[in-house]
Amino acid sequence: MSFTLLLDLDDTLLDTNMGLFIPAYFQALAGALAGRIDPNEMLSALMEGTKRMFANEDPTVTLREVFDGYFFQKLGIDRDSLQPEIDKFYDDVFPSLGVLTKPRPAAVELVEWAFSRGFRVVIATNPVFPLKAIHHRLRWAGLSPEQFPFTLVTSYENMHFTKSPAYYAEVMARLGWPEDPVLMVGDDLERDINPARVMGISVFHVTASGESEITPAPDGVGTISDVRPWLETIDLNSLQINSDHPESIIAVLRSTPAGLADLAENIPQEQWTRCPECDEWSLNEILCHLRDVEMEVNIPRVRTMIEETNPFISGQLPNEWVQQRDYDMQDGHQALKVLAEARKQLVGILSGLSSEDWKRTARHSVFGPTDMQELVGFVANHDRSHIQQVIKTLSEVVTQ
């Protein structure tokens, strides 16, 4: 069956003492660049740039852009001029840090079994490292990316959020919001277990003792060796995502512009307006539709429900706008930018709501009696359905 397995890397697939590894990594990088940058200044800029990645909630900038925007400006140096030294560090020096880690044979066995079952396997590591560094760490774990065709390896180049509910939502968006069940396997409560659960994703808590005392209890608990037998004894369909509460809804909404940008990246311009069938939408049309629905439907409805008591909300027919407004004659890239800015506005409004605000009621001409949580939940479902549509459209037009 179709199944998505999200796997943390450090202290889940690979024994990594981060208390030793991170300082050694920072010192090695500072030493490698000492000929160009004062080591103390470099370390200060590196730590602050990393903090800024952890704090980012903007879906319009990747974590690399967040980091680079601070790091190189702070040091007063152009990235391109330093890139050869950076590449040499990751090619020649970073691999030597592998002696600070230890592979877990049971992790390799788990991944081999998952691929043999046809599972979709994602390396869901906190994306604050370059992909080249993460690939090295996978090799240290005995999980070479050259051998294992992971569906996604999250890195600072390809993600917009560090591990948070929005990170897990972005991962699912990048996968096209598949309908199959999902499990997150990790050891860290703050970065693996808790945010995945907020997103409505089932979790397996990996611990050294094989026991967990967290409340509520995780779906599964044990060592990395216990993951496979646990999966073999349960109904995998019980691990469906359940993201229907305010925090998970906001995470989905926050991640959508990032997920759309991820999916549209590197798609040639001529394919933005190509549709798989004459009655299907192109990528351009989908993005323009989402932009206009956000600005003319979603935000006004939320504001109306906040400002009025049990208002009447009339239904609209935005699907008809595709032809009426000649979306394929518009700029899809600009539509995505406008959507992202409007979505930040909507998320800002929703993030300020109280628990009582989420219960505010309205009378919808189509849905009937409803409340804020249900109505905004429809927005999240709308996002997911159109991301699935994007995946379907691109899978067909790119191969034409």
What does it look like?
With 400 residues, the protein is α/β, with parallel strands linked by helices. The chain is built from 15 helices and eleven strands.
Provide a short characterization of the protein structure.
The protein has 400 residues and is α/β, with parallel strands linked by helices.
CA-CA gap between termini: 28 Å
User: Would you give the CATH topology of the largest domain?
Assistant: Four Helix Bundle (Hemerythrin (Met), subunit A)
- What is the C-level CATH assignment of the largest domain? Mainly Alpha
Number of strands: 11
The SSE order reads EEHHHHEHEHEHEHEEHHHHEHHEEH
Main sheet properties: 6 strands, parallel
The CATH architecture of the largest domain: Up-down Bundle
- Which runs of at least 5 residues are low in confidence (pLDDT < 50)? none
Measured as a percent range, the helix fraction is 40-55%
Principal-axis shape equals globular
Q: What share of the residues does DSSP label as strand, in percent?
A: 5-15%
Topology, pairings included?
Layout: E1 4-7, E2 14-16, H1 18-32, H2 39-55, H3 63-75, H4 79-93, E3 101-103, H5 105-116, E4 120-123, H6 131-140, E5 152-153, H7 165-174, E6 182-186, H8 189-198, E7 202-206, E8 220-222, H9 227-233, H10 246-264, H11 269-272, H12 283-307, E9 312-313, H13 321-324, H14 332-351, E10 361-364, E11 368-371, H15 372-397
Helix pairs in contact: 1-2, 2-3, 7-10, 10-14, 10-15, 12-14, 12-15
